[in-house]
Design brief:
Layout: E1 4-5, E2 14-20, H1 23-31, E3 39-45, E4 52-56, E5 60-64, H2 66-69, E6 72-74
Antiparallel strand pairs: 1-6, 2-3, 2-6, 3-4, 4-5
């Protein structure tokens, strides 16, 4: 079974954060409220596919580059 990441979500799809694959990036993401167990939803994708906009916990929107989103493992 392969690990899915936020960068693989389809527009409107929801998922729950499981863990992070990059320790340094995880600190930045944790400070922005992306914590394990939190629900995220892909709200928008830029015309060229990068960056993306996710809704975090139904509270706020967060813009991420695909390389950042690919470090957020989901279930």
């Amino acid at each position: 079974m392969s690990v899915r990441t936020v960068s693989q979500l389809q527009k409107g799809e929801k998922a729950v954060i499981r863990s992070f694959s990059d320790r340094l990036m995880s600190l930045k993401l944790l400070e922005m409220g992306c914590v394990p167990g939190c629900e995220v939803r892909l709200d928008a994708v830029a015309p060229l596919g990068d960056p993306i906009c996710i809704n975090v916990g139904g509270c706020y929107s967060l813009s991420l580059r695909l390389n950042e989103a690919s470090t957020i493992e989901i279930e």
